[in-house]
Amino acid sequence: MSYMNIGQAASAAGVTAKMIRHYETLGLIPAPERTDAGYRLYSEREVSMLRFIRQSRGFGFSMKQIESLLSLWRNDHRESREVKELALSQLAELEQRQREINEMRKTLEHVVHRCAGDARSHCAILETLANTEGHHLPASTEHAA
Predict the structure, then answer these.
(1) Terminus-to-terminus CA distance in the chain, angstroms?
(2) Are 60 and 90 in contact (CB under 8 A)?
(3) Cβ(107)–Cβ(144) under 8 Å?
(4) Whole-prediction pTM value?
């Protein structure tokens, strides 16, 4: 079996060495074999798992969801229904986030339009941001990060 060091594995999987160590800490990938000097060694199996994680992150899946997906991926007796349920849940979450982003964009466009953007000191944007009542802001921005 051929092994790669962490840099080679990171390059092959399209992630950083720091992320590999993070995924190991989270238990998403198993602790790798090590050389006598303590250097990590990765097989193609771990690199495939890292690619899987990278792809899952690209779809916005949470680490908990990725853990479930990895478990299902490794389980030859899984039912595709379980995978689809996870994906549908993620799709609904993305759709909700998109609605929130659209609402924030619309509100910000309105506030930007109200700002003269000239030499005067009055600014509708700053006025809205300082509004302690929150009347001008969409409710979804409370949870946006």
Answers:
(1) 44
(2) yes
(3) no
(4) 0.78
